[in-house]
Amino acid sequence: MSKTTLVWLQRELRLSHLPALQKAIAESSQVAVVYFHDPKRVIGEANTAWLSHSLANLRRQLYARGADLFIFSGDFPEQFSLALSEIKPQQVYYSFQVGQPFTEMQDLALNLCQEHKVALQPFYSEFWFDPGQLLNQQHRPYVVFTPFYKAAIGKIDTLEPLQESVVSCDDDWAKLRWRERLPAHYFQLPPSLSELQDKPWVKKIMQYWQVGETAAWERLRSFADHQLNGYADERDFPALDATSRLAPHLHFGEISSRMLHFELLSLQQTHPKLNAQTWLRQLLWREFARHLLWFFPYTETAPFQEKFAGLSWQNEDSVLHQWQTGQTGIPIIDAGMRELWETGFMHNRLRMLVASLLTKDLGQSWLLGQEWFAKTLVDADPANNTMGWQWVAGCGVDAAPYYRLFNPLRQSEKFDPQGTYIRKWVPELRNLSCKAIHAPWLYPQECALKGITLGRTYPFPMVDLMRSRHSHMARVQELKHA
Ligand SMILES: Cc1cc2nc3c(=O)[nH]c(=O)nc-3n(C[C@H](O)[C@H](O)[C@H](O)COP(=O)(O)OP(=O)(O)OC[C@H]3O[C@@H](n4cnc5c(N)ncnc54)[C@H](O)[C@@H]3O)c2cc1C
What we know:
- The chain has 22 helices and five strands.
- It is an alpha/beta fold.
- Among the domains are: 192-295, Serine Threonine Protein Phosphatase 5, Tetratricopeptide repeat (Alpha Horseshoe); 306-481, DNA Cyclobutane Dipyrimidine Photolyase, subunit A, domain 3, CATH 1.10.579.
- It has a five-stranded parallel β-sheet, sandwiched between helices.
- β2, α2 (45-64) and β3 form a beta-alpha-beta unit.
- It binds flavin-adenine dinucleotide.
């Protein structure tokens, strides 16, 4: 019997290790691989820029094999209904994603499939462990990372690898060929995506990245060859090229997160002394973030710990603007914010520091920071971004306690001792000594000698860090006694 399956891609933009596509090909005579782009349901501009390149890449990969990628663009419910009418599938397969805009679209898809009497099946290949598989002794979700991590490590031997090749022969590729049967516009990148690629800011950030499945695997191999062994010691130093930078590839599913575990296993067989534990732990932070958003979807817009909902924020546009544009007058913070604006990425240590400054010293809501990251990060990810901001703000699960503020000056001296990272991103300070570069306002003579006029060529710090610590503590104490 001839059967048509629609494979709805959301974030698994790859052709290997893809169970939804593999099963669809095995059981169907025709398979339509579809992406729905709703310009009103996107994460942010940098992330959408990556998306447009990644879709173009995937489309090329498929086309080269005689297969097609449908791209329906416009209002999601309308386009989804249109796809069901045009393609006439008996079933829709997709891999489940947490967070917005995905969960809303998944709910809408469920209703539409019911209306059209089409079966809808989710796959959980974006997770290492199906949601609900890792629960504590009370059968409740873990809300602290370390026990979650131990439970995951305890079950890691039960993890199933995903099959690499989802297509076994040319006849399989032929099942994905539609081009002569439907109008050409279904197979092209819509203008809202292709025109984005020409925007100057998008062009600027994208020059730092290679997009797509092949690039993701190359990145992994290069990281494994050159950086993985030193990762535990070097990952906190932003001037070093010591982390994998796989985050955007992982977000878009250009490489399977679960398969990274199996890659590490095979690497350890050939290099028994390889130290991969710390990196594996970071991958499990990612998994933890996904489980949290699955169980507590409200945390994308509200604090996990309800008592923090009453915390008053001083939200001021001018303060936010100084922070966003890297003009706080605190060099390490400005370096992080400028790296983000220039490249669409920021080192993890800096993400923690800039988030702590914004929420705790400057008293601006974590939601404003989360929103800016969502707009500007190529790896903007609902689960990781939400967990990261709530963790730093102190209102999330397993959070950095409210009384712990990162001191950006001590952090700068510790993790950028020579000021190399600051010199790169805040070039107006590059001639300062290793001492003065962390806090130029404490070295007025040296600044004058090096031609730096505070308040003119570089700002004075926008906040007195001692005072802001006290006012943060006072705000939180108020909350405790409210
Ligand atoms: C305020 C804040 C916001 C953040 N927003 C995002 C975001 O939108 N998207 C995002 O992918 N990460 C986010 N992170 C987590 C982390 O900063 C990035 O994943 C990491 O910097 C990416 O660099 P990398 O790929 O070189 O990571 P590596 O150090 O090589 O780690 C490998 C992978 O592990 C995962 N990972 C590492 N650290 C974390 C972490 N703390 N939490 C969850 N997963 C982690 C990522 O997928 C990463 O690609 C945020 C962290 C903070 C503090």
